[in-house]
Task: structure prediction
Amino acid sequence: MTNYVIADENIAANPRSGAIKLHSAAGFAGMRAAGRLAADILDALVPHVLPGVETQELDRIVYDMTIAGGAVPATMHYRGYTHSSCISINHVVCHGIPGAKTLKEGDIVNIDVTPLLDGWHGDSSRMYLVGDVPIKARRLVEVTHECLMLGIEQAKPGNRLGDVGNAIQKHAEKHRYGVVRDFCGHGVGRVFHDSPEVVHVGRPGTGPELRPGMIFTIEPMINIGRADVKLLDDGWTAVTRDRSLSAQFEHSIGITEDGCEIFSLSSRGLHKPPYS
Ligand code: MF3
Ligand code: CO
Ligand code: CO
Result:
């Protein structure tokens, strides 16, 4: 008994009701612009992700580009978070906090940005390779991107969220990787984290039905080892319990009459590393 409601695209502080919003063309236009800015920011970071750079320098670039783009970083002051991005290195699964820590040759790193533009949240993340990266880590990054795109392929009317999760899980587990259960994709729009929860595992034909107008993220976190995560004492940083490497890609998408629109696609074709 999933509830669906026609979204009121004019109400900024649309509270979570548990219902899944069906957005109109105005919502898609808002998300298109916010998603494009997110993609442009992730594109612009490419030449800056180098050995020796502090993650707070990358966060500063995200802040500056977000403001220059007429947006604000949605993560800033979100539930006490005080940065413009999450930067998650190696065994960090998600929500890594930018700081004085420097990137080193061989690292894999996820940068997750959410510009809030004209009231719409463009939520997207990509992996970056720092210099020469061992094949095992590059393989994880490649397969994680495949997982996201296979999930997106299932995002169309008539399918259910379980079809999306199943496509991701099947591909990851074929490679004997672990799919993180503790964090999910989510409805997105004027609300940052809205219904539904988009789980990255599932059984075909189960879960909420996908209908035109739904807008949500898909953001699988895939571990070389076990799926289990633990939270560090800072209350944000999630790491793999077994310290194995973890990768993630995220897009914001909208369900259309015959499939979906990806709002956060790179206009420069910088979908996954290597970017050069
Ligand atoms: N961008 C993250 C997501 O994909 C959320 C980050 S919330 C923060 O949902 F507070 F950790 F920044
Ligand atoms: Co998200
Ligand atoms: Co995100």
Notes: The chain is about 25% helix and 25% strand. The radius of gyration is 17 Å. Helices lie at 25-45, 55-68, 135-153, 161-174. The chain has one domain: 4-262.
